[in-house]
Write a structure and sequence with these properties.
It is a single chain. The chain is built from 9 helices and 35 strands. By secondary structure, it is α+β, with helices and mostly antiparallel strands. Strand 3 (about 140-145), helix 6 and strand 4 form a beta-alpha-beta unit. The protein is globular. It has an 8-stranded parallel beta barrel with strand order 1-2-3-4-7-8-11-12, surrounded by 5 helices.
């Protein structure tokens, strides 16, 4: 009898074990523990602050003097406070850029803070920042340029020992480091201890990358290593902060290295990748990486930052947002204001999760086991997930509201410890009993966020159309982000058509053209309108749902430029010269490079006007050139008899690249001539982003 009971019990246990449903098998390369931890950070800061801050350059030559590094109010606690309040999780600092200047008192070179006037040579920016990060609960990371345009031994084997020793110092003396950042720029013209020559290296082999990686693994085993080829994190392939809509966290990593030329592949990864190598999207708050006073008016706006966020974090990358610390040693006020607004907006975008705990149904659940139920995608636990049975790579999951609910965001996450597998999916909404497709995309990965027009839905359906194997989806979240209310952006075409735009199409715009203050009873903007004569446009944005509105903005326009034509240019392509008056200061036209005489442009206004001033926009590009600093302006009725109506200087225009307006005594004329008497550059090449006139009304 006892034997029988034991036999029955054994058969029961055997039957139970035979019926156990195992988790889906992993697919492809998998993330390491350090990579899984890194994925959870999502958003952190880059700080470009070094010698270039004080020389107003992006890439220093290496011949700078340490005495030039002298911040007046350096406060790394301010950096950490701003970063924390902005919702970021860490800071990566340019400990040494290509010019070779070290922000810590290294033993490897005299080109460091120990020979600067800052703190009488006793300062250590790395120490200050690492302590500030600890105080504010932030991760601390370091950027170390492999290229060194200052060191005399660069390009020789001796330099590798210097480079590796610098790395050891950074990873030994400043506590835990979460990421080590290696740039892909390598070799070229440099100071090199006074040699002032070009030194080229094989960046695939010169830096002994295997040994470099080993040093990081030895001293900071939890640190992620970033470069074009990883081995832990890859560059996203651009410096604008976006990934492709299709973005795999895996790549065929063998053969990749810092400076890898096939950078466009980095934007989307490889579906058949051999290693887990997720992307990091880096972008600066300004056109440049370092602080330049001339870019104070070019700090990214809230709508721009939101687009960057959805095109980076929302496309399965982490966002590394650069803050160019200024010459004082502080994050500039312009950045601080926008960063805090951005944090507040993200809190609104994802403030209320609508899917948690609501009813879910799926077309397939793995073995009908609770461990893999559809309900796992909205239980708030990232360690649980919905999975389908083996052989089922196409399935749907429906989230059902108790009452019709407004939705305009969906967030999806795969259970990446088992690999990235989803290749194609569709999101639909059931409205009044009918299904409507909202969006269709490809990959998901760690996180995918979609924005769409607000719908009032009874149900939301996610259809996985194709996957590499059984589905493993850990999270589906739904949100209704409030309307984004920002001042409208106004633009006018050369033909005089004025457009007003806001990032949220549910926000209304009202305007006036007669000088009166606009109200919600004024003209409601529906389509572009013509402004071809001197006019003041006043406008504001209005959210009818909340009754909130922006302050009234105003824009002064003069005559439209539809009939303007180029008559003469000293040099340069005349067929492209219309860009100097296309009513778009982002475009530009320039005369030839290398010219040795004063350059000028003559424009036919199409008919005679009574002129009383002119305007000039300097070039807005990241690397400006040919900016007019001293000018002469002429007016003519017939392109033969010319009158110089004004000459002068644009004060501080190189460091303040905004529109310049110069007034003069009213003069009749049809033709105008602008001459660049002096320009910022090595020759007389002259650039024009936009030329305009001021007429007598």
């Amino acid at each position: 009898m006892v034997r029988f009971r034991i036999l029955v019990l054994s058969l029961f246990v055997c039957a139970q074990s035979c019926n156990e449903i195992e988790s889906p098998e992993s697919i492809g390369p998998l993330p390491s523990e350090r990579q899984l931890a890194w994925h959870g950070l999502e958003y952190y800061a880059f700080v470009h602050f070094n010698m270039n801050t004080f020389t107003n350059m992006e890439w220093g030559t290496g011949g700078e003097s340490p005495k030039q590094f002298d911040p007046s109010e350096l406060d790394t606690r301010q950096w950490a406070k701003v970063v924390k309040e902005a919702g970021m999780k860490g800071i990566i600092l340019t400990a040494k850029h290509h010019d070779g200047f070290c922000l810590w008192p290294t033993k490897t070179t005299e080109h460091s803070v120990k020979n600067s006037p800052w703190k009488d040579g006793k300062g250590d920016v790395l120490k200050d920042l690492s302590e500030a990060c600890k105080e504010y609960g932030l991760k601390f990371g370091v950027y170390l340029s492999p290229w060194d345009r200052n060191h005399s031994t660069y390009g020789k084997l001796e330099y590798i020992d210097v480079f590796h020793e610098q790395l050891r110092e950074l990873l030994t003396n400043y506590g835990e480091v979460f990421e080590v950042w290696f740039d892909g720029a390598n070799g070229g013209l440099g100071y090199y201890g006074g040699a002032n020559e070009v030194r080229k290296v094989d960046n695939k082999t010169y830096y002994a990358w295997d040994k470099t990686v080993a040093i990081v693994r030895e001293l900071q085993p939890n640190a992620m290593i970033f470069s074009d080829g990883g081995p832990d994190v890859r560059w996203v392939g651009n410096e604008q902060g976006w990934a492709e809509e299709t973005n795999w966290s895996i790549m065929r990593r063998d053969g990749m290295y810092p400076g890898w030329p096939r950078y466009m592949e980095l934007r989307s990864g490889h579906e058949d990748g051999t290693h887990w190598l997720p992307a990091e999207a880096d972008v600066s708050m300004r056109p440049g990486w370092y602080y330049h006073p001339a870019e104070d008016h070019q700090v990214k706006t809230l709508p721009q930052l939101l687009d960057i966020y959805y095109n980076s974090v929302g496309r399965n990358t982490s966002l590394l947002l650069n803050l160019p610390v200024d010459k004082r040693g502080l994050i500039h006020e312009s950045e601080v204001e926008v960063l805090i607004d951005f944090r507040r907006r993200l809190d609104l975008e994802f403030g209320t999760e609508l899917a948690q705990g609501i009813k879910l149904t799926a077309t397939d659940e793995r073995g009908d086991k609770s461990e893999y139920k559809a309900a796992n995608v909205n239980d708030g636990n990232p360690e649980t997930y919905w999975a389908t049975n083996d052989g089922v790579s196409r399935a749907s999951i429906i989230l059902e509201f108790n009452v019709p609910t407004k939705v305009n965001r969906i967030l999806l996450q795969e259970y990446i410890p088992l690999g990235q597998r989803i290749k194609n999916f569709i999101v639909s909404a059931e409205i009044d009993g009918k299904w409507h497709e909202i969006d269709g995309q490809t990959t998901i990965g760690y996180k995918r966020i979609l924005r769409f027009k607000t719908v009032e839905a009874d149900k939301i359906k996610v259809q996985i159309m194709d996957a590499k194997g059984p589905i493993a989806l850990s999270n589906i979240a739904l949100y209704r982000a409030p309307n984004l209310l920002t001042p409208p952006v106004i633009k006018r075409s050369r033909e005089g058509m004025v457009s007003l735009t806001v990032p949220d199409e549910e926000v209304e715009i009202y305007y006036t053209l007669d000088g009166r203050e606009p109200t919600i009873s004024s003209n409601k903007y529906k389509k572009p309108f013509r402004v071809s004569k001197p006019t003041t446009v006043k406008y504001f944005a209005y959210d009818s749902k909340t009754k909130a509105r922006t302050e009234v903005s105003r824009k002064e326009y003069d005559i439209a430029k539809s009939n303007w034509n180029i008559v003469y240019t000293t040099t340069g392509n005349m067929f492209e010269a219309y860009k100097a008056f296309d009513d778009d200061p982002i475009t530009y036209w320039a005369t030839d490079d290398g010219v040795s005489t004063i350059q000028e442009v003559i424009i036919d206004l199409g008919k005679t006007y009574n002129l009383k001033g002119f305007t000039y926009w300097p070039i807005q590009q990241r690397y400006p050139f040919g900016i007019i600093t001293n000018f002469e302006f002429y007016v003519s009725p017939d392109n033969r008899s010319w009158k110089r109506v004004v000459r002068g200087e644009f004060p501080n225009i190189v460091n303040h690249r905004t529109e310049q307006k110069v007034m003069f005594k009213p003069t009749q004329g049809r033709y105008i001539k602008l001459r660049g008497i002096k320009v910022a550059g090595h020759d007389y090449q002259t650039s024009f982003a936009e030329v305009g006139v001021v007429t007598v009304k």
